[in-house]
Amino acid sequence: MKSSLPWIAARLLFSRQTLFGGSAPLALLGLVLGVAALVASMAVMSGFENTLKTAMAEVSGHVQVVKRSRFPDDWKELEERIRKAEPTLVSSTRFVFIEAVLAHKGQISGVLIQGVDTDRVNQVLNFKRRTLSGSDNLSEPSDIPLALLGKNLAQKMDLKVGDTFRVVVPVADSVDPSKFQRRVGAFKIQGILDLGKHDWNERFILADLKATQTLADIGDRYSGLILRLEDVDHAREAAFNLSATLGSPYWVRDWRDSNENLFEAINVERPGIFFVVLVITIVAAFNVSATLSMNVLRRYKDIAILKTVGLSRKDIQKIFIFQGLFMGTVGLVLGFLVGIGIAYLFEWLQSSLNLISGEVYRLENIKLQIRFVDSIAICVATLLVCLIATIAPARRGAKLDPVEGLRSE
């Protein structure tokens, strides 16, 4: 008899008198919406963090080792020192940053040109997945140095794949360092990229290292090495290790450093948003409690009969707890489906209507992510709240005197 308690609970719950009548549908709807809100909000938070992390790792590398000295040195020797200190190193590429002004069709814009080793860049960075048009291959034969542009910069300057543009770079005078000379260089657009971050899309240009060094008149000097590790999440530990090993001539930073405040804000806001939105689920759960209390009143005769045939108070209490958990599970499953639907709808709307302002959030598009840890937290929190909410009506049903229950009929 006791093994059939879940079946009895389901039989009493899934009836026109209980679940499909009175306030039960509204209580269940509130629970579904509460869970859906939790799923959607956690998907946005996790998606924002993962999208930013992916962009940083693919465009700026896992770790950057920046030289403090301007004197040239053997980069292969530096790479070997890094590999000995950090065996998880997969590959590296030299890079150099220069600031310039892009001029095209009477328009000008400040840009940041990053020169990289074209034969090694694909081993370290991932521009292929971010190429919207053209190609990411900068090593193709060409009379004019090839370059890749961020999509917003290309749109603002009305540039397309195959177009040629000019950049102006200020170079210190070799005689009087307080004076600058202008050097003009030309590049041909090989591809247009979506770099993931708004500020990169606004002013980022990727070019061959040699062409960038020639334009800046810096000989064979470079800014440092961009590293790719076996595990992107190991980057912070590796950066600390390399910083201690290489010493003061080098400045080591990982992909998280330049946006540390954003990642910290996400870590702080995630639990806050979870518990704020959880309030909706708590309110819905106590609506479920009210529904079960009404069910106790409607089921006086059934409860009396069950006690008459030998069920104890604890058994009756378990029946109503099972009912609360049944409603919680149904609400949880439907809520997850609705929440996933809202997440997909949000992704479609943001790509169609540009809901996210890149100037404010630094990202123009968020790939929503429903993490396993978040899903477990939502399931546990929802079922726990429903369990607590059912204790009062369950005890009320358990205390019913079978004689009084039958007399009331």
Give structural notes:
- With about 400 residues, the protein is α+β, with helices and mostly antiparallel strands.
- It has 2 domains: about 1-55 and about 260-405, no CATH class; about 60-255, no CATH class.
- It is built from 14 helices and 10 strands.
- A hairpin with a 7-residue loop joins strand 6 and strand 7.
- It is elongated.
Q: What is the structure about, briefly put?
A:
The chain is built from 14 helices and ten strands.
List keywords for this structure.
single chain, alpha+beta, six-stranded mixed barrel
Secondary structure layout plus pairing:
Layout: H1 5-13, H2 24-60, E1 63-67, H3 75-85, E2 89-104, E3 107-116, H4 121-124, E4 131-134, E5 146-150, H5 151-156, E6 164-172, E7 180-193, H6 198-203, E8 204-208, H7 209-216, E9 224-229, H8 235-246, E10 250-254, H9 260-298, H10 300-308, H11 313-353, H12 358-361, H13 372-398, H14 402-407
Parallel strand pairs: 3-8, 5-7
Antiparallel strand pairs: 1-9, 1-10, 2-3, 2-6, 2-9, 4-7, 5-8, 6-7
Helix pairs in contact: 1-11, 2-9, 2-11, 2-13, 9-11, 9-13, 11-13
How many domains in all? 2
| Mean of all residue-level pLDDT scores | 80
Cα distance, first to last residue?
25 Å
What portion of residues belong to β-strands? 15-25%
Report the helical percentage: 40-55%
The main sheet orders its strands as 2-3-8-5-7-6
Secondary-structure content class? alpha+beta
The main pleated sheet reads as: 6 strands, mixed, barrel
Radius of gyration, in angstroms, nearest whole number: 31 Å
Number of strands: 10
